[in-house]
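Now for one record:
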Amino acid sequence: MEAAHRRVAADLAAQISAGLWVPGDQLPSRASLARHYGVHEQTVRLAMILLRSRGLVEGEQRNRLRVAHPPVMRTLIRPDADWPHQTETADSSPCRATDELADRLGVQPGITLQHEVIECMDPGGRSAMLVSSWWRGRRKAHSSYVAELGVIALDADQAHALGLIVDTPAYRLVRTRLDTVGRATETADLILPMDRWTIRL
């Protein structure tokens, strides 16, 4: 027998697919859906987690969720290019260099670094990428960069910003900018949701 939350999720997914709700529409409350389907609110919560994992709904789990806009697939070819759309600065507080950051920048662990987190929006105003950058002192010009691609599981802050659930896999592109003699001037983590990006390097 099919689990109740999967039955609820399947019915809601069918209604979204049929156009009963369109992207951006707010879904009924958890309590209202529980009454409609004759199930416990916890069952509805599990159904919503399933729908979020499939990219059908978005928003904070504690609030009313909305029908998600279909992700726009983009291709990242130039990790050093300026973002062509709107950006928002989410954090700009200095921090101490971890061992990893110290190694990436060629500095001593524990020294103070400048730090910035930028949320890059797509043309529709939805979050498409997070860029966390670290550098020492004043930002300097660079002449080249190196990039290394890996995969991470989103932490709570990253998932919140990108409208995804915690532990969703995402690309992590480590970009380090270099001066004319190959010294690191800045390093950054570019976090790109896998359902919205392909990488071509």
